[in-house]
Amino acid sequence: MNVIIFGATGGIGKWAVKYALQSGYHVTAYVRNAQKITQTDAHLTVIQGDIYDQQKMTKALSGQDAVVWCVGIPMKKSYQKMESLEGHKVLIQAMEANQVKRLVDWGTPSVHFEQDKKSLITVVPGIMAGLLFPQAKKEMLAIAKVLQESNLDWTLVRFMAPQNTSYTGNVKVGFGDRKMKFSISREDIGAFMIKMLDSDTYIHSMSIIGS
After folding, report:
1. Backbone angles phi, psi at 178, to 5 degrees
2. How far is CA 167 from CA 162, 171, 186, in A?
3. Model pTM?
4. 49-58: b or e for each residue (b if 16 or more CB lie within 10 Å)?
5. What is the separation of C-alpha 173 from the centre of its chain, rounded to a whole number of angstroms?
6. Least buried of 65, 108, 135, 156, by fewest C-beta within 10 Å?
């Protein structure tokens, strides 16, 4: 499988690259700064570019089988340009132009999904995000909307409190119907997102993961 990973140098993206390579995939890392990629692998290609460069994005998607999106959203009270949302719009056009269907993306439980059961993990994050990070929540909701309106085979992995802790391989998955801790290792998130590439269990779904 040929997989392109956006945000490949970030806290989650770097782990997605690691586990995609371990899975035997041919990985393309699409990054703003190629110098931040320190690992080398015969199956790793690095492309430097912006996520709102339509021409470069379309070219980068050529020959790909799947996309993993690990680009972060600013955790600030307010900000002007919604880069991740604009990047998603460009990405969807680029994927459609290349007939690439599979996308694994991320969000938080502040994005409501139809399967959600009322619980702490499905209610509290939305309230907190609305108070502390209203612009980020607005962008995240808008991204979820464009995915749902697309023709892609998307999966939106939701999590609450990513940590720079060790990999456990013990990821709990649910929709508010399963008890789990908000905190989860960034490495576990990256590994889980790659695992989704070989699964159709959560296509057109927004599972919540925790520890």
Report:
1. -135, 130
2. 12, 10, 8
3. 0.95
4. bebbeeebbb
5. 16
6. 65
Q: 177-200 as b/e, with b when 16 or more CB fall inside 10 Å?
A: eeebebebbbbbbbbbbbebbeee
Torsion region of 99: left, alpha or beta (phi above 0 gives left; psi -120 to 50 gives alpha): left
CB atoms within 10 A of CB 63: 12
Contact 138, 73 (CB under 8 A): no
Q: Would you state the structure tokens that stand for residue 156, as one six-digit string?
A: 């939106």
User: Computed from CA positions of residues 16, 20, 21, 27, in that sequence, does the dihedral angle turn out positive or negative?
Assistant: negative
Q: Say whether 22 sits in a helix, a strand or coil.
A: helix
What is the tens place of the pLDDT at every residue in 142-200? 999 999 999 999 999 999 999 999 999 999 999 999 999 999 999 999 999 999 999 99
Strand order in the sheet with 153-158: 44-48, 26-31, 2-6, 66-69, 102-107, 153-158, 208-210, 172-174
DSSP, collapsed to helix, strand or coil, labels residue 57 as: helix
